[in-house]
Design a protein that fits this description.
By secondary structure, the chain is an alpha/beta fold. The protein is built from ten helices and twelve strands. Helix 3 runs parallel beside helix 5, helix 4 crosses helix 5 and helix 5 packs parallel to helix 6 (about 200-215).
């Protein structure tokens, strides 16, 4: 792999750097190559949306950004700092110490397709658990912070309810509160509404819209084209592990559109999106 420049860690103007940069990222699962040299930047304080057909590599990029998957080659920078691997003096990737990986990863929160809540814990317990175990906060402080996050997603009155007593949309909002409780700088959303019906989808997207309005840096994988077109700052359209098209929504969705994007929209157009992108 050709040498890639790593920004100097001593540069103080971190805010000027992209929140996340991906450089020449490839990923293989056995003999199958899923990502082919992906390059992208997600700006600070903006919403970056990854769209494309199923199997195009969107979720794999997100999982690599969270270091839940290790890329086969390439680099990921979080606020200018390498995540997982940096380039050695010989130009080859060198794995960073685990303590450094944990430190950089701590800046990232992630919400998955499945809610992954602990069924034996209340909403309050699900949100406060990591604060007590990972952050070692006293119970009272952890639960106060958890309540603040539940209030932020409109679920303070459901704090004592168990997942089985909550709708799918409410469970996903608890999952968002759980991620926010750890105070990440960047939030990753991997198709957070894919298992929800239209009414419940709306309440989750409303929370995401509010986070965007509050300036949270978000990288969102979604088939909700209406959300991407109206909330996204930058759109990346992927197909077969490559970025086919990128730009601001008005540029990506302009007419006439890229033929592959047009084909995708005919298949995946979501509720109300036709009026927003046509």
């Amino acid at each position: 792999m050709a040498a890639l420049e790593i920004p100097d860690r001593d540069v103080s103007d971190v805010a000027a750097k992209p929140a996340v940069s991906v450089r020449a990222l490839t990923k293989r699962f056995g003999e199958t190559q899923v990502l082919h040299g992906v390059d992208l930047d997600a700006p600070q304080g903006e919403v970056t949306c990854l769209i494309g057909p199923s199997g195009s590599g969107k979720s794999t990029i997100l999982r690599c950004m969270a270091f839940l998957e290790e890329a086969t080659s390439g680099l990921i920078l979080v606020g200018g700092e390498p995540l997982g691997y940096a380039l050695g003096a010989d130009g080859k990737r060198t794995r960073l110490p685990q303590s450094e990986i944990r430190r950089v990863r701590s800046q990232i929160g992630m919400v998955f397709q499945q809610f992954n809540l602990w069924p034996h814990m209340t909403a309050l317990g699900n949100v406060s658990e990591a604060l007590k175990t990972a952050r070692r906060l006293p119970k009272r402080e952890a639960e106060a912070r958890a309540m603040a996050e539940l209030d932020k997603v409109g679920l303070a009155d459901r704090a004592g309810h168990y997942p089985s007593q909550l709708s799918g949309g409410q469970q996903q909002r608890v999952a968002i509160a759980r991620a926010l409780a750890l105070d990440p700088r960047i939030m990753l959303f991997d198709e957070p509404t894919s298992s929800l019906d239209p009414e419940l989808t709306g309440e989750v997207l409303a929370v995401m819209r509010k986070l965007a309005a509050d300036g949270m840096t978000m990288i969102v994988v979604s088939h909700e084209i209406g959300f991407a077109a109206t909330v996204g700052s930058t759109i990346f359209f992927l197909d077969h592990g490559r970025i086919v098209l990128q730009g601001k929504p008005a540029e990506v969705f302009k007419s006439p559109r890229h033929p592959r994007l047009e084909q995708f929209l005919d298949t995946y157009i979501d509720r109300g999106a036709a009026m927003m992108v046509r």
